[in-house]
Write a structure and sequence with these properties.
Number of helices: 5
Mean pLDDT: 80
Number of strands: 0
Distance between the termini: 45 Å
Shape: elongated
Keywords: Membrane, Transmembrane, Transmembrane helix
Strand content: under 5%
Radius of gyration: 24 Å
Largest sheet: none
Order of helices and strands: HHHHH
Helix content: over 70%
């Protein structure tokens, strides 16, 4: 045990402090903020395109059953609500210029982090349940046009894809985004402390 304590004390005494200039850190932070903003815009655009595509089903196809329209309505409602939440999150990181208001931006970035956590944890399951319900209603009519084996295959593939996205993909995206935002927050906190020391 004494050897371990001795090695630990040696390690701590030889820690190397890496100093990055505030300009370099600001440049890195700017790239990361722009990347997060662009990704946010792409997510919102993708959701809007999905909304338009599903709306076209409603407008241009003549379905016989009310359940199909109910399924499409549930899809559209879930997509619209999620798009609104994505837009609210996007506004948090895009309404302030972090070079002129770094403290205000840092507060908004922390709110964005909480917003994303809620989106991936609580709201995601509401979204997934709504989509599942929409698919069930939609499939009641649509699947009648297919053979039984094809019906089973479509249902299996659809729900398999949803389970895959809800587990593996969601966790990987959530972990990556959590680390990225935490690192960005740390950079802004370090930048703020460097500016205070320089003042």
């Amino acid at each position: 045990m004494q050897e371990f304590d001795h090695i630990q004390s040696l390690w701590q005494s030889h820690s190397v402090e890496v100093k990055i200039s505030s300009e370099e850190m600001l440049t890195q932070a700017k790239k990361e903020v722009n990347s997060i903003r662009n990704k946010s815009v792409m997510n919102i655009t993708g959701m809007l395109l999905s909304f338009i595509a599903i709306s076209c089903l409603w407008l241009f196809f003549d379905f016989q059953s009310w359940t199909t329209y109910a399924g499409i309505f549930i899809f559209l409602t879930a997509i619209a609500a999620t798009t609104f939440m994505l837009y609210r999150g996007h506004r948090l990181i895009s309404k302030n210029d972090f070079t002129t208001h770094p403290n205000e931006f840092l507060v908004n970035l922390k709110l964005y982090q909480i917003n994303r956590f809620n989106l991936y944890n609580k709201l995601y399951w509401i979204y997934a349940i709504a989509l599942s319900l929409g698919i069930i209603f939609y499939f009641l009519e649509i699947l009648t046009y297919f053979d039984t084996w094809l019906q089973c295959l479509i249902v299996l593939l659809t729900f398999g894809w949803m389970v895959f996205c809800s587990t593996l993909v969601r966790r990987a995206v959530m972990k990556r985004e959590k680390e990225r935002i935490a690192l960005l927050i740390e950079k802004f906190e370090r930048l703020g402390s460097q500016f205070k020391e320089g003042a």
